[in-house]
Amino acid sequence: MKSAFVWVALVLVLAALAAAPFFMQAYGLGLLIGLMGYVTLAGAWALFSGRTGYISLATVAFFGIGAYMVAAFNEVLPYPLVLVLAALAGLALALVVGLSTLRLAGVYFVIFTFGLAELVRQLVTWYEINVTGTLGRYIFMSLGPEHIYWQLLALAAATLFITWRIDRSRLGLALRVIADDEVVAAHLGINLARTKLALFALSSVIITLVGAVQAPRWTYIEPAIAFNPTVSFLTLVMALLGGASRLWGPVLGAVPLFLLFEWLSANFPNHYSILLGLLFIAIVFAVPKGIVALVETRFRTNERAFRPVAMEAEGKP
Amino acid sequence: MLVTTIINGLVLGGTYALVAMGLTIQYGIARIMNLAYGETIIAAAFLAFVLNGGLGIAPLASLLIAAPAGFALSYVIYGLMLRPLVRRSGGGAGLEVNSILATFGLLFVIQGIMLVLFGGDYISYSYMNFGVDVLGASVAANRLLALVLAVILGGGLYLLLTRTLWGTALRAVAVAPQSAPLVGIDANRAARFAFALGGALATCGGVVISMYQTFTASSGVIFTMKALIVVILGGVGNLAGALSAGLLLGLVETLVATYVSPGLTLAAVYHIFLGVLLWRPSGLFGKARR
Fold first, then answer.
1. Quick check: pTM over 0.90?
2. Complex ipTM value
3. Domain assignment of residue A4, yes or no
4. What is the DSSP string of chain B?
């Protein structure tokens, strides 16, 4: 009964969000597109990093590849095919990164992803200068902002749904064991590398698609725009503030922070990254487990033990 | 041509080795994965630039200011920001995650401050910019000086850590942080000192780099990346490993920049990194660990 009520409420919220473009001005819709983009990014980031404890710093590498695939192919291929191609490119990069680092200790993964966006940016720049002979590209597409918004909304809903399904599946159970103790997980017969790789690939493909869907908003794109490291940073901050290991954590983190960032970048454009960095350090200190966990422990009425999760257990070797 | 390239490669490699030594000390002894490390380097490069242009202090002399400043700054950062995280994790593995996140935030703070102060342009200054004849090839004097400094600083650090009681205590903490207190070593103090020492090396590296390279406020990430790769290559906490791995990386990078394309240096670095990850994850000189 209760779960049926929750489902109805969710469908209503989704319908209201989908109808939003009909009642909004261009500015409001632009804001909503950015917000939905970051909700999806934070959700997809948390899907892998929040559940396994492997911190990925390469969000914008995938995001930028998605955007660049659209820029490169939007004039020669039909739009759905471009999206598929972008997803495949993201998948390929995720497999390269995952296969080479996810069998090892978590710190190798962090280091690899730390420079990955810069590497991809330099490679794209090199390719554009030496092969195509230009640095920037134009994206002219007939997609209105409301279409971009609906695609992002669908992607966000899909990300949440996938996360919800995975948390309740054997895979989710395996992930919880991995996050707690990899040695125990291995002894239970969980294939560590394959489980982590599958989830990382899924999360990366979603992130790539966010970049691809949002690309037409830019009209003009060059490596410095598509591979802006702030995107990786914002995604990480949002997911952590909300609680990276919880289903609704990334959403709860993304909404207030996105609005705050909008306000900061409008009012303090020069001191933006300083304030952002300080805020992030404050989050690491004050709410290391995220808002959701904080609220739960504050207002917990029944003393039933909560399931241990990745960011709380913090048991990475 | 080849001789010049190799010497330039050794110079670059020497700088990388110097910088990576600082990071390997921070990560190996203090157990802090410092993602803001490159920002410390760039901050020192700006310091040398300002001292040189504004006050007329030669970069060589500004080392005497940069090194203590880097030591003090890192000491304070450890005490204010990282020590509480160390205490919270209680020696557990959570420290790694927390230090990565906290220093990632610090990266944006320091980078933001430098962007506000200096803007995003490429910066360089002219210092000892004349050719010296080495083995029939002409090499810029500032590059030779950089190599000599890297050797002196790196060698001095190596002797300090291997020949003195104080250095032995630091290495003991690196090897067995739980057992070090049993023989009367204050592990907390050792960690703080190691972190500060690493910071001092980073600022020295920054001054050296500014003598012969252009830099921007946002190029710290690349230096962190390269230093991290050198540390992994050489084996965490291994000074001699960092030295050889740094030289190797500098050589490869210069060769690729000269004979293939300057735009592909980071790709070459990543190839080496990938190779090491697939072939010897504990580093070329590291012992099998973890």
1. no
2. 0.82
3. no
4. -HHHHHHHHHHHHHHHHHHHHHHHHHHHTS----TTHHHHHHHHHHHHHHHHHHS---HHHHHHHHHHHHHHHHHHHIIIIIHHHHHHHTTSTHHHHHHHHHHHHHHHHHHHHHHHHH-SS-B---SS--EEEETTEEEEHHHHHHHHHHHHHHHHHHHHHHHSHHHHHHHHHHH-TTTGGGGT--HHHHHHHHHHHHHHHHHHHHHHHHHH--B-TTTHHHHHHHHHHHHHHH-TT-HHHHHHHHHHHHHHHHHHHHHT-GGGHHHHHHHHHHHHHHH-TT-SSPPP--
